[in-house]
Structures are given as structure tokens and as C-alpha cells.
């Protein structure tokens, strides 16, 4: 209960006997606001506060004297710690669910849904700040033969190793790797021109060579990868970001196809890059 000269309020547990000012931030103005609202016949808003690791909800109720004037404000305090904890768990579960839905279950890389979100966002940002964005398409050479000859468990192990190697070659916070489908991967490289993307691709190629994963069906005798690189350069024009996304993916994919056609285990660039 709070009179105009503020008094202590009675509660259970460790906050019993505490002053209003100890529990409600800015208690003086809050209580005065309650008196003012009550005098106008208005509803008194609830407040929330935390004390000693617990969460509380406070409801205010006006009490009138014999003349009908508001003389006191009653505070009813409800411990809502459990509710707050459950709400926090639900928010975290939803966040993890959304994150999981955007990740490939085998490699941990972004899946196609995750790629769509990242690529749309980064294309918008690159247009806004006037910087380049590069996309690197990657394909494991002769992977179907590898899978058929060594079995799917070995194929999955190969995919995982390549994925982790690609992640290890991305040194900047904004770079992202995606499993685009089957044995194909994509790297999204914000603020990177064609030269920077080529350096990243070369580093990836060298790192995968160093894995030295035996591939009996490959003329190289080991697992190798092919690369296709496309760049959305400064000032790229387009009516819709989605159209830019489709065009950039198509350019990188065409460059990748050319790398495979020209012997594989090589880096090719989108025409005009």
C-alpha cells in the first residue's frame, strides 16, 4: 500500500517489507501518476520489475476515503518468474528452430533457404553502399562415381570434410558458405571483387587438395573441386533484387559448367567479369 507520503508494502518471500522505491524504478513519479490517473477515473497500468533474481508483476488499485477522494494506492505483486522463464525458453526454441531450418543437416552450412536470405540481404547492402559482391559456385568433381564406388557413408564423410574446409577458408565475418544441393556449394563474399573471390577460390582449391582424399574414379586420383565465379559489381542496376539474385546465380553456375567442361579442378569466371 502506498500513501501520498510513500510507505513500505507487504509481500511474501525476500522482498517482504521492502519500500516501493526499492522495487519499482522511478517509484515516486509512478505512484504520483497512479494518484493522478485514479483521480480522473482512469485505469492504472501494470508494471514489471526484478528483484533478487525473481520477476514480479505489479498491479495498482486505488482506494478512496469516506469523501470519495483517492487516499491510497494498493499494490498487488505477483511472482511471474516461472512465466518469464518459459517465455524466454520459447523464444530461444523458436530462434533455434529458425536457425536449424536454414542449415543443412549434414554439413552445418546454410541450405538453399538460408542462402536466399543471405544473398538477398547482401545484394541490397552492396547496392546501398556501392561495393561489389561475389558469388563462388563449387562442385566436387566426379562425385557420383565417388559415391557409387565407395558408398554413401563415405560420400557423406567427403561432403562434410569439404564443407568444413570451405568454412575454414572464409576469414571475414560477413562471408557465408552454403550447400546448394548434392555435391554443389556456394560461397557468398560481400565486399569482394572478382580478384578477391579468385583468391578465396584458390585458397579453397589448395586446402581441398591438401585433404588428399583418395578418389579412385578421378583422373587426379584424389577429390578435387571446380569453381565458377560471378560478381555483382558496383552500381549494378536491376528492377528487383530477386532478379539480380537469379542473374548472379546463373552467371556463377554457367562459369562452373565451363570449368567442368574444360577439364575440372579449375577456376572459371562469368563472361564479362
From TrEMBL:
One of the record's GO molecular function terms: diguanylate cyclase activity
Gene Ontology CC: one annotated term: plasma membrane
EC number: 2.7.7.65
InterPro entries per UniProt: Diguanylate_Cyclase (IPR050469), GGDEF_dom (IPR000160), Nucleotide_cyclase (IPR029787), PAS-assoc_C (IPR000700), Rev_trsase/Diguanyl_cyclase (IPR043128)
Ranges of residues in domain GGDEF: 131-272
Catalysed reactions, as listed in the record: 2 GTP = 3',3'-c-di-GMP + 2 diphosphate
GO BP terms, alphabetized: cell adhesion involved in single-species biofilm formation; negative regulation of bacterial-type flagellum-dependent cell motility
Domain of life the protein comes from: Bacteria
Domain PAC: 42-92
Alphabetized NCBIfam families for the sequence: GGDEF (TIGR00254)
PANTHER family: DIGUANYLATE CYCLASE DGCM-RELATED, REGULATORY COMPONENTS OF SENSORY TRANSDUCTION SYSTEM
Name assigned to this protein: diguanylate cyclase
Amino acid at each position: 500500500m502506498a500513501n501520498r507520503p510513500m510507505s513500505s508494502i507487504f509481500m511474501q518471500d525476500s522482498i517482504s517489507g521492502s519500500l516501493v522505491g526499492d522495487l519499482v524504478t522511478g517509484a515516486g513519479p509512478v505512484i504520483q501518476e497512479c494518484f493522478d490517473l485514479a483521480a480522473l477515473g482512469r485505469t492504472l497500468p501494470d508494471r514489471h520489475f526484478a528483484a533478487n533474481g525473481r520477476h514480479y508483476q505489479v498491479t495498482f488499485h486505488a482506494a478512496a476515503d469516506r469523501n470519495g477522494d483517492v487516499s491510497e494506492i494498493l499494490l498487488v505483486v505477483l511472482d511471474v518468474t516461472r512465466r518469464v522463464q518459459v517465455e524466454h525458453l520459447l523464444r530461444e526454441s523458436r530462434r533455434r528452430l529458425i536457425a536449424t531450418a536454414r542449415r543443412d543437416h549434414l554439413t552445418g552450412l546454410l541450405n538453399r533457404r538460408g542462402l536466399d536470405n543471405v544473398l538477398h540481404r547482401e545484394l541490397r547492402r552492396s547496392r546501398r553502399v556501392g561495393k561489389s559482391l561475389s558469388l563462388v559456385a563449387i562442385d566436387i568433381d566426379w562425385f557420383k562415381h565417388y559415391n557409387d564406388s565407395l558408398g554413401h557413408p563415405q560420400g557423406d564423410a567427403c561432403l562434410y570434410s569439404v564443407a568444413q574446409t570451405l568454412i575454414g577458408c572464409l576469414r571475414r565475418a560477413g562471408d557465408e558458405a552454403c550447400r546448394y544441393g548434392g555435391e554443389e556449394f556456394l560461397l557468398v563474399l560481400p565486399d569482394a571483387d572478382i580478384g578477391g573471390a579468385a583468391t578465396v577460390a584458390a585458397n579453397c582449391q589448395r586446402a581441398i587438395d591438401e585433404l588428399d582424399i583418395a578418389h579412385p574414379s578421378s583422373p587426379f586420383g584424389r577429390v578435387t573441386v571446380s569453381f565458377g565465379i560471378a560478381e555483382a559489381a558496383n552500381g549494378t542496376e536491376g528492377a528487383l533484387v530477386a532478379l539480380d539474385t537469379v542473374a548472379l546465380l546463373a552467371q556463377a553456375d554457367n562459369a562452373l559448367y565451363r570449368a567442368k567442361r574444360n577439364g575440372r579442378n579449375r577456376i572459371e569466371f562469368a563472361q564479362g567479369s
